[in-house]
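Homework help thread (please don't just give me the answer)

Our assignment gives two proteins as sequence + structure token strings and asks us to describe the second one. The first is just a warm-up. Here they are:
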Amino acid sequence: MSHGLKPCVFACTLTFAVGMVSGCANPLSGSGAIQITPTASLLSPGQTLQFKAITDLPKVPPFLWQVNGIVGGSPSVGTITAEGLYTAPSTPTVQQQVQIGVRDQLVSATVALFDPFHPSPGSVGATQNPLVATYTISIPLGASVRVHFGADTSYGLSSSAVPSPALGGAVTVLVAGMRASTSYHMQGVIKLMDGSQVTDVDHTFTTGAIPTDSLPSIRTQVTGVGTPSSGVELLSLVPLGSGGSGNLLSAVATDLAGNVIWYYDLPVGAYVEPIKPLPNGHMLMVTLGSVNDIREIDLAGKLINQITLSSIAESLTHVASFQNAVWGGLNHDVLVLPNGPLILLASIGETINDEPGIPSGTVVTGNALIDWDPRLAAVWTWSTFDHLDLAHAPYGISDWTHGNAVIYSPDDGNLLFSMRNQNWIVKINYQDGTGDGSILWRFGPGGDFSLPGQEAPVEWNYGQHYPTIQSATSSGIFSLMFFDNGNGRLMDSSDDVCGSAGVGACYSSVPIFELNEYTKTGTALWVDNLSPAYSTCCGDALVLPNGNVEFDIAIDASSPNSSIEEVTQTQTPELIWKMDIQGQLAYRGFRIPSLYPGQVWPAYAENNLRRADIRPRIQRRPNP
């Protein structure tokens, strides 16, 4: 039987019109109303709760508080002081709930009593997502509950803890991270205010099926060289070619065996670029294709918040930099700032008429960054047209900048912005919304930094994606990692371009640089040369908790497939784990600890990781 709060004798917000009730001894004079708050609660043994009697009468004598009709209460039903402070019985009793009232008044409030030795079982139900269940259970004031789940009663996975409502009551936990068409066991564990724990009975839930024509083609392997880092893969999959990818899922999480354990069902023709987990347990994504917006969803797929391009454009009609802009859409990234607001990334076009070397009337596409506070709309803006020189266009002027990632520098409150078609990562004077937007430095060929002679120009970044800060500091001297796509890489001191006759082939790499903002120098601390792999777009790279490096080769020039690899961060990197994706491009694919904030899911035995012989990438150059 589900343990919920039983209804009050009277409605929870009932007011009592004193003058309209006959036959009641009423010490109050005049007409008025009385109400007891709070109206309903759920308490553990010994917990206290303050009650108040509210009335609009001008003169009120002291209230005589009572529990179940007993003035002052009793040890078996709980006691209440003359000031309305109720204390639940110190040990569980046969009472499941009690009524808090004032003598000679008909209004009352209900206190449900939680029995930690015989808790009312929770209940499990389905959601609109066949891989996500609801687990509902009533918990007392100040408690929290998390759900353990797995293929058997050893469980192995856990959700985050969900706190009780302010006064206790029913809590629903979304349980996600399960494979399709599989039976799971799950059990809620309640943590009370005193630190003790109460365990619910075991429940079972069978997940639904995913339509076969929606499943991405994913295969994973391990080499046996080492153990993959813990966590799951979060994928942003994009259609390949003009024919698209039909109904294939785009926003997907898999276990390390490649089984889909979560997804978001987008409208037909839509895909995500990218998707990110939020600190509150929701997912944030930029959608493209048939829809273009930024949306926040819960794990069941319920839409929580949505930002449309039209709302952004409308909020910027008064900003001079955007009055003549042609909005090209939200794309490539969205940044969640530490204090809550978002930095949005959009494409904007401007018609150029008076720029030397550019035909009059040419439409140039650049980028805008918008600091978006949901309460205040746009509160800070930045445009490439205000801060970059149109003469710097390594890949041409039409798609001039092609921004693809923005990250926050906590040490100085500034922003790092990656622009693929500038071959630059720049630091922008943001200063937590008070900066003037000026570019503090540009990292890349032709920028403000220099590399040691033996590293330049071949180790510069070309068409890079997804920078991440890998050191405890983010300014002064710090470490920066990114996926270096290698588009148009200069191969030698003569600036010969990769792929040219007599010059080596283009290739991608994953470097970690130490940047010195004082001397404007960069030094490669570690580089994984991915040759012959050459991803002409997209991709990402990050250091995993076990020290290994994972990167996404989004589209190899020699193959239409994407691959995500985990390698050792050693002089000669060794392959640990590999995921191959066919028929879709993995715009981003990276390891996250789990689907829940604060929870780390291990690469446990249920994953059935397949060992296979994987040939190492050939022509790998030694790292510096």
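The one we have to describe:
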Amino acid sequence: MRVRDDDAEALVSLADITEIELVILKRMRDVTIGDHRSRQHGTGFDFVGLRDWQPGDRFSSIDWGQSSLTNFAPLMIRDFEQPSTATVVAVADVSPSTRCGLNGVAIAAPIARAVATIGLSAVFFQDPFGLITFDSGFQHFGGIRPRTGKGHVVHCLDAYERQRGLQEVRRTGSISATLSGYVRNSALMAVISDFLIEEPEQVLKELALVKATHDIFLVMVDSAFAFEAPAIGSGWIDTVDVETGESRTISRYALTQLAERARTWQDNVRQMAKNLDVDLVTISVDVAKTDIELSEFVGERRLRKTYN
């Protein structure tokens, strides 16, 4: 296992985004053939404020007067929001353990790809997409308000990877109250993590309460690959927990059992989610399989939400 370097290659590259877009276009066209209810409602766009220019923004939305006050560095964008029948929000794990992995692949990589897939699926349906991040123990949250467009999805991906441009989300008591309080309208909400967390049953019970206001489902990364032990000659190995900083010396045999223990833990999480009637999708480092399965799941869920 290794900790990912911040200067390493991007978790999701522009080439990856293009590849995901092509998958979504192909799979969603099959799902959305025929007449459907309008994806937007209301009389037009609501002005929500000004923000810095981001790659993908239209030049027609630049507020030149306000930009002159900043000497055009940065350019200022007039931000509008269009009411929609569905808002999509990815709630993604940014705890230090997600930056660990094996053979150059971090657990955060499939999480970021899931964020991209869900976000670009929202773009296909012209739905606003937003991001909420959480750390270990769900103690600290960050967020980006839902907006439409591919450029906004790219911005959310950069915010997830670099931990910048995020608005602080105040924790208001429970996890469910925090999530429901930050997202104003009823949303399709995907919680993405490997769920190798303390007291997972209590966390899942909290997330299940979100169903009262949002259509929530879980996306669990099969992270056992990150615990596969390499060939080690030593009988004892010094390990460090990246979450707590605690060190421990374990035997070579115990190291070889970590991957199996992770699988057993995640199997228990699946059963907990089933008992709580919360849908759970498992994804892996197999990007082709994950893109197809997740995009189809989100698409079908999105259409079901529209017609309910």
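TA reply:
I won't write it for you, but here's a hint about the kind of observation we're looking for: The longest helix spans residues 287-307.
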